[in-house]
Amino acid sequence: MKILLFSGAGTSIELGVPGMEGLATEFLRYSRQWEVEPKLVQEIIGNTLDIEHLIEELDRMCLAKSSLNSVGHTIKVIEQAEKVRAEVEWFVQHTAERITAEEAQLMWGPVLQVAKTTEITFVTTNYDRAIELAANSEGIQIDDGFEQIAGKETAHWVGFSQDKQLPKLVKLHGSTNWFADNNTDSPKKLRHPMPLFGRSVLSFEGRQLCSALVLPSREKMLTKAPYPRLSQTYLNSADHCDLALFVGSSLRDAHIRDAVKSIAERVPVFIVNPYEEEYAIEGAEVIAQHASTFLISTLPNALLTKNPESALRGAANATTSNTKGILSTVSKLLDVNTKVTQRCLAIDILDQMGVTLPRMQVEKLLHDNSSIIARYALGLIPLSTVKDVLFDVANSCDHVSDPAFNEDLDILRKLISSNRQDILAPVNQLPSNASPQVSHASDCKETAA
What we know:
- By secondary structure, the chain is an alpha/beta fold.
- It is built from 18 helices and 11 strands.
C-alpha cells in the first residue's frame, strides 16, 4: 500500500511552534518589546492575527518602493515596512527551531518505524525539522532530495532516489536548514541551521548563502530549484497513492487543496483535526483527533492491521471527547525519572481517552523496572492491533513472578480469549485481587508512600 501523509502547522503546534495566529500574536509582542515599528505591525495585523497576512501586506508595500523611486518619491512607511519585513522573516525561521529532538521523536517516531515496512511519502509545508530530528533519533534514513549529510556540514541537492525502501520527505516550502547559493541559486542543506535576518547572507566554504524558504508572497521562489521537483513529487505521490492522510492542515494553499480534491475522487482520504473540519472536500472522512494522538497512536496501530483503511474509518466514526493531544502525557509516562504515581496517572488518562500506544512503547513499559508500571501497561494491550503479540511479551517478562502482575495478566488472558467487546475495559480499572475495593491506583499510591 502506498500512503501519502501530508502534515501542516497543526502537527508542530504541540511541539512548540505556534500556528499562524500564534506567530502573529508573538511577533506583535516582539515588535513592541524591541521597538520594531509596533504601530505599523498592529495596523497591518488588525484583528486578523495571521502572520501570512502580515507578510503579504509588507511585501506589497516593499514592492512599491522601486516604482516610487523611479518617479523621484520615497515614503517613510515603506522604509518601515522593509525593516519589519526583515525582522519577521528572521522571527519565523527562529521560531521554527524551537522543537527538541526528544519530543519530535515521540511525535513522529512511531510512524517512521512503520515506514520501514510501509511505503509512505511524507509531505509538509512546515519549515521546522521535526521529522528529520525524529528520523535521526530513530536511526532511520529518509530521502529529502539532498545527499546524505553524515560527516559533512553541507549537502547538495541530488533529487529523489528510486529506492522505495527509503521514506520520502517532500518539504514543499523548504526547511530552516535549506539555503541557496547567492550566485548560482543552487540549493544547499546545512547540518547546523542559522536563521538569517532579512537580506543577510551566510559566508560558508567560499560561498555566499541566502535563505531558501518559501514564505508567503514569495511564490516566485517556487520556480527555482528544488521547488519544481518537490511539487512534481508531491503530485506524483497524489496520483499514485492508495490512501491519503492530511494532518493538522487548513488546506488553504490552492494547489494543495486541488490535489486533495483530486485524490478524494480516486482513493480514501482522511482529514485529521480536532475540530472535525472537512474543508468541503467531497468524499473525505474526518478523524477528530489532535495530531499527536493520531501520529503516536491511531495511525501506527492502523498500519499494522491487514486493513488500514477500515481501522482508520473506525477512528473516523468513533465519538471522541479528546480535548487535547497525548504528547505531554506520553512524555511523562515514558520518563523513568517521573514519579510512579504520575506515570500511572498518565496511563489512566490514555485509558480514559481510549488510546493505546505503539508496540515498541508498550513493550518498554512491560519491561519497566517498576512492576506497578508494568501492571498498568497491561491496560494498554486490549486496544492494540497487535494485542496477541504484546500479551506474549507480557507473559514472558520478568514481572510474571509478581503475584499481583500475574493475577492481572490472567484477567487479560480471559479478556482476550473471550473477545467480548463489552468487557474490554482498561485492565487497571479492574480489581487486582478478590476485594473490589483494591485497585491498581490504590496500589500505586501505597507503593509511592
